[in-house]
Amino acid sequence: MVTSSSPGKDQHLSGEPTDIHDAGLAEVLHHAVREAKKRLSAVAAAVYLLDEGRGELRLALAAGSQLSLYTMPGRMGLDGYGASARALRSGKAAVLVDPDPADPGQKHVLPYPYVALSAPVIAGDQRFGALTVLCLEDRGSCRPADGLALVEIGDKLANALTMLVKDGITVAADPMPMLIPPESTTDVCGCTAGWGVQGVPGSAGTSMMYPLRRLSVLLNRATTVDEVVGAAQYCMMDPLRAQALVLATASEGRLWVLGHSGASSGMVRSIHGARVEDRIPAAEAFRGRPLYMSADSSPSADPLSVDEPRTEVYLPLIGNGQLLDLPVVESGRVVGVCCLTFSGPHSFPPEERALLGMMAGMLGAAVERVELNQQQRAVAECLQRFLLPSRLSHLPQLATTARYRPATVTSKVGGDWYDVIKLADDRAVLVVGDVEGHAMESSAVMGQVRTAVASYATEGHRPAAVIDRTGRLLIGLDTGLTATCCVVALDTSDHTLEVALAGHPAPLVRRPDGSVYALEAPANVPLGVCAPGPYQGCEHTFEAGSVLMLYTDGLVGWDAADPEARAQALLGSESPGSTPDLEQLADEVIAEVSAPQQRRDDAVLLLALYEGTQGTDRPHVGSLHIQRRDLRGVRTARAFVHDQLDSWGLDDLSEALELAASEMVTNALIHAGSDVDVRLRAFPDHVRLEVRDSDSNPPVPSPLSLSEEDNAEAEHGRGMLIVESLAEMWNSSPNGQGKTVSLNLPISPH
Question: Are 678 and 620 in contact (CB under 8 A)?
Answer without folding.
Answer: no
